[in-house]
């Protein structure tokens, strides 16, 4: 297939990104695949970000400016403006290797909804790769089942970031996919929704994104009430919009429990949430209480583990912190806890 005729829309939200954005946009301008449009949105920056991005006069670059609305609304604005056959999200402090878009697009055979590249954790200050985000060990995975990627995520771990994924624009439009407005951790929900609805997903072994990990201003590094409430919004949305709508899709209940595990782990290690936020966590956990089926391709111990996590989540916040343990799934201690939980619930 000749993929050179496809237009790729690269969406770059910018908020106070003056330290990074010039180098980021240069990495986009220097892509070996030239049939791109770069949609740059200045989201109410108070520094000189707008001055910097306005200097990019390449006709493929389109600059917009708005009052500060947050990442979700800014990405949604970019989706509205995008004219491409494919959509790619790039943050304003991350770097694209020269062949990033070419590499991803080369894997398109005419049926893929999402093409996922390997992401390198990148030190901006040292200009070097220091590690990699979770990615399948196999060179390539093709799935025709909307639960396969989600299962792999909860059992092996994948990167849920919206970036470094080439989305078929038709797939996004037909499924009315947008980011949930006004929350933190919008990527967690976006990952679930896109992978749940996708029919064909490919993971490629090539590194096509440098994800900056030493930006101290990144909101995902701050453990605030907004982080906790963002995660709670994610599990509530999945429960209301997917679990209740598709009760026979076993993966949804387990995925909710997987996200509860992340929330509880954050609470255990970063317990600087307000009493009001913790009360909201307790109420949401009790409301979002799915039933579990054994008809799912998970190991038996993993099934018991996620059922155990959900049971713990129904307790008060002090008991949650006391009971939860955060060791590997195959640890002896965790197996003992699961066995105890199974015996207790069989009485």
UniProtKB/TrEMBL annotation:
Domain Glycosyltransferase 2-like: 9-134
Domain of life: Bacteria
Listed name of the protein: Glycosyltransferase involved in cell wall bisynthesis
Organism: Chryseobacterium limigenitum
Any one Gene Ontology molecular-function term assigned to this protein's record: hexosyltransferase activity
Alphabetized UniProt keyword annotations: Transferase
Keyword Chloroplast recorded: no
Record Pfam families: Glycos_transf_2
């Amino acid at each position: 297939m000749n993929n050179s005729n496809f237009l790729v829309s690269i969406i770059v939200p910018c908020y106070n990104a003056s330290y990074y954005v010039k180098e980021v946009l240069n990495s986009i301008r220097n892509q070996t695949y030239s049939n791109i449009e770069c949609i740059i949105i200045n989201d109410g920056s108070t520094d000189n970000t707008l001055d910097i991005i306005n200097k990019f006069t390449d006709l493929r670059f389109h600059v917009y400016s708005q009052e500060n609305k947050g990442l979700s609304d800014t990405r949604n604005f970019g989706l509205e403006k995008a004219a491409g056959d494919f959509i790619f999200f790039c943050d304003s402090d991350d770097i694209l290797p020269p062949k990033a878009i070419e590499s991803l697009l080369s894997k398109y055979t005419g049926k893929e909804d999402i093409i996922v590249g390997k992401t390198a954790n990148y030190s901006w200050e040292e200009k070097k790769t220091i590690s990699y985000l979770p990615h399948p060990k196999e060179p390539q995975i093709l799935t025709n089942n909307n639960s396969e990627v989600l299962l792999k995520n909860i059992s092996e771990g994948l990167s849920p970031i919206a970036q470094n994924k080439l989305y078929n624009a038709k797939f996004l439009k037909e499924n009315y996919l947008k980011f949930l407005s006004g929350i933190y951790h919008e990527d967690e929900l976006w990952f679930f929704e896109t992978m749940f609805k996708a029919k064909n997903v490919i993971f490629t072994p090539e590194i096509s994104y440098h994800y900056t990990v030493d930006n101290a201003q990144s909101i995902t590094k701050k453990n605030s009430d907004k982080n906790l409430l963002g995660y709670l919004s994610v599990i509530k949305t999945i429960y209301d919009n997917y679990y209740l709508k598709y009760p026979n899709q076993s993966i949804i209940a387990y995925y909710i429990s997987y996200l509860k595990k992340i929330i509880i782990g954050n609470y255990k290690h970063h317990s600087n949430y307000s009493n009001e936020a913790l009360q909201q966590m307790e109420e949401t956990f009790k409301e979002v209480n799915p039933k579990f089926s054994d008809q799912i391709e998970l190991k038996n111990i993993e099934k018991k583990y996620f059922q155990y996590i959900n049971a713990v989540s129904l307790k008060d916040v002090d008991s949650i912190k006391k009971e939860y343990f955060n060791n590997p799934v195959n640890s002896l201690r965790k197996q003992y806890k699961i066995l105890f939980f199974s015996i207790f619930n069989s009485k």
